Amino acid sequence: MMDFIVIPILALLAATAVTVARIRNLWAAVMFTGIYSFLSASWMLILDAPDVAFTEAAVGAGITTILMLATLSLTPRRHRKSGRLSSEDFEERPSKSPLFPLLIVTITGCALVYGTFDMPHFGDPNAPIQVYPQPSFVEKSQPDMHGLPNVVTAVLASYRGYDTLGETAVIFTAGIAVLLILRKNTDDQGSSESQSVTGENA
Amino acid sequence: MNSFPIIRVITKLLIPYILLFGLYVQFHGDFGPGGGFQAGVIFAAALILYGLVYGLPAVHKVAPPKVIEKLTALGLLVYAGTGLVCMLLGGNFLDYDVLNHGILTELPTFLDFQPGDKPNHFLPEGQHLGIFLVELGVGITVTAVMTMIFYAFAGRERVTS
Amino acid sequence: MTDFLGLYNYWIVIFLMMTGFYIVIARENLIKTIIGLNIFQTSVFLLYITMGKVTHGTAPILRESHGGEGHGSEHHGAESHSVEHGQELHAATEGHLDSGVEAVTEIYSNPIPSVLMLTAIVVGIATTALALALVVRIREEYGTIEEDEILEMDRNS
To answer: Is residue C67 part of a domain?
Structure first.
């Protein structure tokens, strides 16, 4: 029953990825990336990971697309003295012969497929990933967490709380870095370094 | 986008629900799918939507950049502070079991819940409280960072060279 | 031959991964490269998530019936929660059958890949934003976002 949903999703996922690779207009490529994120979120939901699907839909399809579009609007390809930008300004140049990259990709892909022959099958309950962290922690988590039912949150915030702290710090650092790279320096007249950067630019 | 009345009206209708949904995801994340990351992104999405439709000055009035910048640090501090409080109370870093306070953990009896009913934690304590605070910290940081990144990109002007 | 069909999830993931890889190595536009990295990254998320799936499993959100304090006496109740490991599941079911109570077993998919990927997604958007910010700065300094043109300018300067 589930196959009727899964197979179209996977087919669309593959088709979208190929389209992103082939299309030259960058606006369209960014929009297709958003579609790709939504489709992978759908598959994640079917694969019993609602938290991840949720995040992927909000982050991948929402915020990433917005940021890419914002970047794109700041980076048109060539400048014309007058007139509005046309869609040609957001197209890639025709690329060189794709044969050599295709060869590399095919070889790598074949090697990876060969590697999967030793992998446990899809949904196998006795696969190493299911067995080795003693799975009874799922049951134990409920008394541990005062009956909080969502094991993902319990692991994220409590069992692996230190990890999540580090990760929040990574997000914080990335935000600060973006701010340092991109912020307009109108309100800090004193900093001479940033003044000189804009001076060269103008 | 000032000349698209449909977009403006629909945005105004949508934003309260997006914010409400963000709050639900934040505070219900222990019970269903959700948590700080998702809630933060949803909150930021509401602010970004407002900024896209009504312009950067309008959204700067709602969420001033100075406040947003401080919130990024605040979220991280809430997270790390929870860990430190646990240490001060005699536990390990981020060991929420020491956060038991015993105040109002049972529902007051005048709210007629059957004694055997499931929601017997009126105020969260212990692990529940710890997870709640930590997720709150994550939510604040993610909201603030995403909004800040959007401000940085949107405030930039195209260089003509 | 049917032995190999159980591996289809890996093949899909590898296909998507290689598409992203192709975009990264074949295209010279920096934004397209970042898009390729994003596709690669999403396929890695999918790889982990597919590995955590258990057949007939459900999302790792426990049914609210027991656990918590004050419910110790209800542990022999009508339901038992069991997890993905086959043997353990079997044992749990048996234990409850022995006590003469009907046992309803729940199988949950593995929550650990979900947790890891949840953090990875959010770190991913943070690094993507950083990369895009660098692209904006490169465009401002060099006037182009094509890799080879930038390299040429660097060589000539």
So the answer is: no
List strand residue ranges (DSSP E) for chain C, in order. 79-81, 104-106
Number of domains in chain B: 1
- The reply to whether residue B130 touches residue A158, judged by beta carbons under 8 angstroms, is yes
CATH classification at residue C120: 1.10.287.3510
Q: Count of domains in chain C? A: 2
Would you state the pLDDT for residue C53? 86
In A1-30, the residues whose Cβ lies within 8 Å of chain C are 10, 13-14, 17-18, 20-21, 26, 29-30
Residue-by-residue DSSP string for B92-158 = -TT-GGGG---SS-SPPTTS---TT-S---SS--HHHHHHHHHHHHHHHHHHHHHHHHHHHHHT---
Beta bridge partners of C105: C80
Name which of A153, A173, A180 to mutate to probe chain B: the one with the most chain B Cβ atoms within 10 A of its Cβ: A153
Q: Does A198 touch chain B (CB under 8 A)?
A: no
A102 burial type by CB count under 10 A (0-12 exposed, 13-18 middle, 19+ buried)? middle
Question: What pLDDT is attached to residue A201?
Answer: 41
CB B114 within 8 A of CB B56: no
Residues of the domain holding C80: 75-108
C42 and C88: one domain? no
Structure confidence by residue, pLDDT tens digits, C124-149:
999 999 999 999 999 888 888 888 88
Q: For A23-61, what is each residue's pLDDT tens digit?
A: 988 999 999 999 999 999 999 999 888 889 989 999 988
pLDDT at A70 over 50: yes
Q: Residue B18: what pLDDT? A: 93
How many angstroms separate the CA atoms of A72 and C115, rounded?
32
Chains that touch A (3 or more CB pairs under 8 A): B, C
Q: What pLDDT digit, counting tens, does each position of B68-126 carry?
A: 999 999 999 999 999 999 888 888 888 888 877 766 655 555 555 555 544 555 566 67
What's the pLDDT score for residue B142? Answer: 93
Mean of pLDDT over chain B:
84
- CB-CB under 8 Å, B155 with A183: yes
Residue B12 in tokens = 């105004």
The answer, for A133 touching chain C at a CB cutoff of 8 Å, is yes
- Considering only CB atoms, B118 lies closest to which of C64, C118, C125, namely C64
Domain of residue B129 covers 5-154
C122: nearest CB among B37, B118, B161: B37
Residue found by looking up tokens 């660097």 in the block = C154
Which B residues 98-157 touch A at CB under 8 Å? Answer: 118, 121, 124-128, 130-131, 134-135, 137-138, 141-142, 144-146, 148-150, 152-156
B33 to chain C: which residues are within 8 Å by CB?
59, 61
Contacts of A45 (CB under 8 A, 6+ apart): A53
Residue A98 or A85, more confident? A98
